[in-house]
């Protein structure tokens, strides 16, 4: 890890997510990491989103906490696995894995097009961390890039696909995941997806519609929405098996043992899924 005199400025989309996830990084390596990144430029946009949808910060936190919750179920010291983070962004999940599961993870591959340089500066040196600066939709070259970095298809892997499928088509997703398919379905995919308007309760539509417009204006493009049946169909197309799927209502209950924010299906706009492929 380099010693830096000034905080690093980062791309606004990734910074926005990290801004809302700050409470998750309150100690250890992740706390040191977050303290070196300048998130000030996204504060006005974050305030607008929270004003429109007051539970936006909690939804981001639930998403990230639930990924860590699922990782706890899949990681064991008895069978070390590879972890591959596609479109890794700025989330210091790697540091969490190094601290909490040092013997359960054999290698970590962070694939991202924009933020690899920043993480190389801020992460501590570790033989387990492999950075790959690449476009995850470039499926012609991505498999070779992973193999060159030390990824072994014969070793079980957990693939983290967080906050990505909103920006790509189902065809893109299937093409990316083809590389990770295994004959015995030993790989696990953990991801989230955003529900379409017709899968949401009418009570949340007055928030959802302007929120969608604001987010699409912020990213400068459209968002892809998928209902549960469509996601199940994609898993089936990969000849995979769904392990778990959870609405934000279910995620909140599993994490906290009670519901204080979400009481009905679709209220949190996103769902979480894990599957074997």
Automatic annotation (TrEMBL):
Extract the SUPFAM superfamilies matched here.
Answer: S-adenosyl-L-methionine-dependent methyltransferases (SSF53335)
Q: Provide the alphabetized UniProt keywords.
A: Methyltransferase, Transferase
Q: Which Pfam families match?
A: LCM (PF04072)
Q: Where is the signal peptide?
A: none
A GO biological-process term: methylation
Question: What Gene Ontology terms describe what this protein does at the molecular function level?
Answer: methyltransferase activity
Name of this protein: Class I SAM-dependent methyltransferase
